[in-house]
Amino acid sequence: AQTVTQSQPEMSVQEAETVTLSCTYDTSESDYYLFWYKQPPSRQMILVIRQEAYKQQNATENRFSVNFQKAAKSFSLKISDSQLGDAAMYFCAYSWTGTASKLTFGTGTRLQVTL
Amino acid sequence: DAGVIQSPRHEVTEMGQEVTLRCKPISGHNSLFWYRQTMMRGLELLIYFNNNVPIDDSGMPEDRFSAKMPNASFSTLKIQPSEPRDSAVYFCASSLGNRGYNSPLHFGNGTRLTVT
After folding, report:
1. For labeling, which of A14, B6, B49, B50 is most exposed (least CB within 10 Å)?
2. Which of B102, B106, B109 to probe by mutation at the A interface, max A CB count within 10 Å?
3. How far is it, in rounded angstroms, from Cα A44 to Cα A70?
4. How far apart are alpha carbons A18 and B21 in whole angstroms?
5. For chain B, give me the number of helices (H) and strands (E)?
6. Record: contact B106-A50, CB cut-off 8 A
7. Measured between alpha carbons, how far is B25 from A19 in angstroms, rounded to an integer?
8. Run of H or E residues at B68
9. pLDDT in tens for each of the 115 residues of chain A?
């Protein structure tokens, strides 16, 4: 069974600074997807970024980028120029390509952004 | 597109009552998922459908839970009878999913269920 581990229950960053959230996963599959979702206090789940395992290039979306290390099964999220609106729970998630978007989530990291 | 629409947004009910949660997926999406979120267990997949057919219901806690998808634009999750331990946020999500290709999951705003 696939598992996703987020070892940082809480993180804090100052506005305009950079923060990295960690995620590791375990799978025996070679073809899969990895995701970061953001859940603000409104509780909506918002897709932040997605990475295909067959791509060596790390995904980026504006201020958000990932460091994907397939051999180490590591998938960290870097948020640059942090903004107050980035404060939220962040969930790392895994999906095997054979199961049509079925996601396994980590336990989440709560990110605080301070002035 | 309006996104995934869930109703109600909040539901408070007494133990033993029947609860029905509703979901309208994004038009054109063929996969639909029901997740439950609690502090203790995080986000758990309850069941998912592909082309209206239940594919994996191994996450459904017990027989008190049932889910249906009568057509491509509507799904329900029913709990009968409800218990206090069912209190959670229930999310519906949809995607365009086929083997070998995964579009991202789009989530609804969730239903917060409180069973007293």
Report:
1. A14
2. B102
3. 29
4. 40
5. 0, 13
6. no
7. 34
8. strand B65-71
9. 789 999 999 999 999 999 999 999 999 988 899 999 999 998 999 999 999 999 889 999 999 999 999 999 999 999 999 999 999 999 999 988 766 578 899 999 999 999 9
